[in-house]
Amino acid sequence: MASRRRKVIDVKKEEAAEQNGLIGNKIKKSKKKVEIKDGGSFIGRCCSKVKYLFLLILVPPFLNYASLQKEMTELQPAGEMYDIGWGQKLFMMCKGEGAPTVVLDAPTGMSSDVWTRIWPDIAKHTKVCIYDRAGVGFSERPSMNASRINETRSGQPFTVERMAADLNRLITSSSQQPRPFILVGAELGATVAQFYTQIFESDVSGLVLINPLSDVLFEQDEGLWAKYWFGQLIPTYQTLQLGAAIGLTRLALIVGVLKHPLSGSQMTQDIEYRQKHLLCHPKHLSSVVDEHHFINETFSQIKTAKLLKTIPSRISISIMTGNYYDEQMPSSLNKAWAKAEQQFISKHFPTAQHLVVNGADHHMLYKQPHSVVEVILKMVRQVKLRNKNTKSS
Fold first, then answer.
1. What would the pLDDT profile of 270-294 be if each residue is shown by its tens digit?
2. What DSSP line would sit under 80-148, residue for residue?
3. What angle do CA 321, 323, 328 make, to 5 degrees?
4. Which strand ranges, in their side-by-side order, compose the sheet holding 181-186?
């Protein structure tokens, strides 16, 4: 009996042990499942984050590109695209009638929109044209295949020699505007106007130079402006170009972190939208960078042109400047700019009419336009009177 009881107890112990083993295995399996589930959720979270990061990187550039394609048609200003040869077209708009034709050339890296508050008043008295230099605004950049065309082309792209040659083809052979021309240029546009007059002097009867770039600007005050130009100004435009390429500029404009160059200047809504469009356009900003980058080559070319010959005395010249270059800039930069400008006037244009607009800086084109209009119309009247007297005699 005792042996039977022991056997029964042993059997029960074995059954209990088996049950405990099964329970242990179940617990182990459940733990493994939990571990697998936890591991799966971690991988899922990582994949989800990578997906969102991927979307953040790729979506803004694609949205910006799609918006640019739509805006190119909707925001293009009134005017025409003129073929100047070499597979390149430049934008120009002309209004008004009669001679002389006033041609307005914008400051460094800026589109023809800067003349919006000036050209309508000029058009009431004579013909006036605004245009965008190569690559800036709505004009095309120089063609990469231009070297294959068997026709020589003046100057390196984005230097004053090339700009003057482009302008000549634009207003003569491509569109045949009535001569003579009164060239009105601001900053780099003033340099183009001077170079054009040096090369094509028979076309020009008057020059209005607004805040002209001095070819000795970088030599003033131990190269203060050279350090600013190449150390701060160009890197800023390069950053804007990168921001436009990856779509961040458009986001910055939407949330109000970034403002376009003509903001706060009483421009129409179309121009506001167009300036924002250009600020989001990598090609436009690439040309802005190039105009600044090749400024030393431009200075070298204009110096050489002035050594070869002077501008004829028959051409009327007016120069407009403000009290400073930019009231938001450090006084040291404004003083260096003023010194360089004064040297420029006394050396190259000592007999020119020099008008200082009190309280103005380089924003005068769109913040104090009436002062600019008065000077231009005064020259228009002078040229018309001179042409009338020449015909009568």
1. 999 999 999 999 999 999 999 999 9
2. EEEEEETTEEEEEEEES-SSSEEEEEPPTT--GGGGTTTHHHHHTTS-EEEE--TTSTTSPPPPTTGGG
3. 110
4. 80-85, 88-95, 128-131, 101-105, 181-186, 204-210, 316-322, 353-357
What residue type is 215 in one-letter code? D
Which contiguous run of DSSP H or E holds residue 207? Answer: strand 204-210
Question: Which tokens is 109 given?
Answer: 């890296």
Instruction: Answer whether residue 13 shows pLDDT above 50.
Output: no
User: What rounded mean pLDDT belongs to the chain?
Assistant: 86
Residue 66 lies in a domain: no
Residues 132-157: pLDDT tens digits?
999 999 999 998 665 545 457 788 99
pLDDT of residue 390: 76
pLDDT of residue 71: 74
Task: Quote the CA–CA distance of 315 and 305 in Å, as a whole number.
Answer: 17
- Give the Å distances, CA to CA, from 34 to 31, 250, 285: 5, 46, 55
Per-residue model confidence (pLDDT) at position 274? 94
- pLDDT reported for residue 52: 54
Is the same domain home to 127 and 165? yes
Q: Are residues 321 and 291 part of one domain?
A: yes
Query: Could you give the dihedral angle defined by the CA atoms of residues 47, 52, 54 and 59, in that order, rounded to the nearest 10 degrees?
Result: 160
Structural domain count, the chain: 2
Which residue range(s) make up the domain with 365? 75-392
DSSP letter string over 133-186? -TTSTTSPPPPTTGGGSSS---S-TTSHHHHHHHHHHHHTTTT-PPSSEEEEEE
Same domain, 117 and 182: yes
- Asked whether residue 293 falls in the same domain as residue 146, the answer is yes
142 and 35 in a common domain: no
Residue 355: its H or E element: strand 353-357
Residues 170, 33, single domain; the answer is: no
Residue 69 covered by a domain: no
SS3 218: helix
Residue 344 tokens read as 């420029």
114 in the same domain as 35: no
Residues 227 and 131 reside in one and the same domain: yes
Last residue of a domain, one of 61, 84, 103: 61
